[in-house]
């Protein structure tokens, strides 16, 4: 489609309202990091090691990535609306399980089940691509994913306050309330946007090679995965750096932790304003350069011996800014390679991105010690950012070569 279809709020006969898409993605982001300031206290509560407790991030991301392989084609086959509703319902049940978990093993099991909320992130993008064409999709996704910026920006700060006031379970009660409320909103507002297909799910999966043989699809996927990989490494390592290296209290850690989200919101806004005018490739290139430049500057400051809590978290704004420019445009690019497989493309691309993020998150958690300080985390993040620059540079040069031929 080249024009947006008519949308009426709380009318299931039309596509979902922008507000619904924003709060969907916002809860998906909130589920990832609201409780992170509570990790040190949860480590004590479950009488375990911090590295085991940190797996609550890595296993969540890992299952999140696997589910995206299924969610996309399921929604192409059966529609966006039923898959989203089932995902939210299972998320709410899993959240209850997290609250009442008696052991760390049971908690991690339910934490993995919480990953069903991935339907919000994957299918909000597919819904946008159902509604509009590539250029406008990048702009619209930029606005929709501002929910993924606002939630992480305020989430850790709220989570830190909840932890100190009511205990670590309070964050999960907030997630449960949010899940139930947004599920009700989806029920009344989410109109179906996908053209459901008569082919079987097996036939749908057989169309994966159509995407996997496209170098353009791979280029956008790898760029998104590597650029966001720096942020996922931050998710896995920053709670340790803040609480152990800089000795921050949970409330203070929650305040500082939201620094990347400030930049992400700005990057989303820039994407929404300029993607149609400048094109997705130029926006992606500028985004990866901002991401890489901010991390390189932070690393040089720490290597020179001048690193502080303010410089560490301050430069993370560039990580968020870069991701805010890269992800909406890279997602629009990968979804436009084969528009009739928008759900599948979103699932495959998101799975690669989240799977890589899970690995980097686990790596950061495993390698950080009080002796390594913050430098080890910044090294990991910078390496991922540099590879993102290489990926989009190759993609752009490849596209120019194809057009020239």
What do these coordinates show?
The protein has 405 residues and is mostly helical. The chain has a single domain, classed as MFS general substrate transporter like domains (Growth Hormone, Chain: A, Up-down Bundle), CATH 1.20.1250.20. The chain contains 20 helices and no strands. It has helices spanning 18-33, 39-45, 50-53, 55-78, 80-99, 104-113, 118-131, 134-144, 147-166, 169-189, 201-205, 208-212, 215-245, 250-257, 259-278, 280-303, 309-314, 316-336, 342-367, 375-404. The two termini are 28 Å apart.
Named at the architecture level, the CATH assignment is Up-down Bundle
Could you tell me the number of beta strands? Answer: 0
Estimate the global geometry from the Cα principal axes.
globular
- Give the helix level as a range of percent: over 70%
Here the CATH topology equals Growth Hormone, Chain: A
Q: C-alpha Rg, in Å?
A: 20 Å
Mean pLDDT: 84
What keywords describe this structure?
Growth Hormone, Chain: A; mainly alpha; 405 residues; single chain
């Amino acid at each position: 489609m080249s024009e947006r279809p008519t949308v009426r709020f709380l009318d299931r006969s039309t596509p979902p309202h922008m507000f619904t898409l924003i709060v969907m993605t916002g809860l998906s982001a909130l589920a990832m990091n609201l409780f992170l300031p509570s990790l040190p206290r949860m480590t004590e509560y479950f009488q375990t090691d911090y590295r085991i407790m940190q797996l609550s991030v890595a296993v969540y991301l890992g299952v999140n990535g696997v589910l995206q392989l299924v969610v996309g084609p399921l929604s192409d086959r059966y529609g966006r609306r039923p898959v989203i509703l089932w995902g939210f319902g299972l998320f709410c049940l899993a959240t209850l399980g997290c609250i009442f978990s008696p052991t760390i093993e049971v908690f991690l099991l339910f934490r993995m089940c919480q990953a069903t909320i991935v339907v919000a992130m994957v299918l909000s993008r597919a819904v946008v691509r159902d509604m509009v064409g590539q250029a406008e999709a990048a702009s619209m996704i930029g606005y929709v994913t501002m929910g993924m910026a606002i939630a992480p920006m305020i989430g850790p700060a709220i989570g830190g306050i909840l932890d100190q006031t009511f205990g670590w379970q309070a964050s999960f009660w907030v997630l449960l309330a949010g899940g139930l409320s947004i599920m009700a909103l989806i029920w009344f507002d989410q109109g179906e946007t996908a053209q459901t297909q008569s082919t079987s799910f097996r036939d749908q999966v057989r169309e994966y090679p159509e995407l996997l043989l496209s170098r353009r699809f791979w280029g956008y996927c790898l760029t998104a995965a590597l650029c966001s990989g720096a942020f996922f490494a931050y998710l896995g390592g920053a709670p340790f750096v803040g609480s152990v290296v800089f000795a921050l209290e949970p409330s203070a850690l929650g305040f500082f932790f939201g620094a990347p989200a400030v930049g992400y919101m700005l990057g989303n806004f820039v994407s929404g304003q300029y993607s149609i005018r400048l094109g997705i490739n130029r926006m992606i290139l500028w985004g990866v350069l901002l991401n890489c430049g901010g991390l390189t500057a932070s690393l040089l400051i720490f290597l020179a011996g001048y690193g502080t809590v303010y410089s560490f978290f301050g430069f993370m704004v560039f990580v968020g800014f870069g991701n805010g420019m890269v992800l909406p445009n890279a997602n629009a690019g990968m979804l436009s390679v084969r528009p009739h497989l928008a759900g599948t493309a979103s699932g495959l691309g998101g799975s690669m991105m989240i799977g890589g993020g899970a690995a980097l998150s686990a790596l950061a958690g495993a390698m950080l010690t009080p002796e390594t300080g913050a430098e080890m985390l910044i090294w990991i993040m910078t390496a991922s950012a540099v590879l993102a620059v290489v990926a989009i540079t190759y993609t752009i040069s490849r596209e120019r070569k194809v057009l020239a031929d």
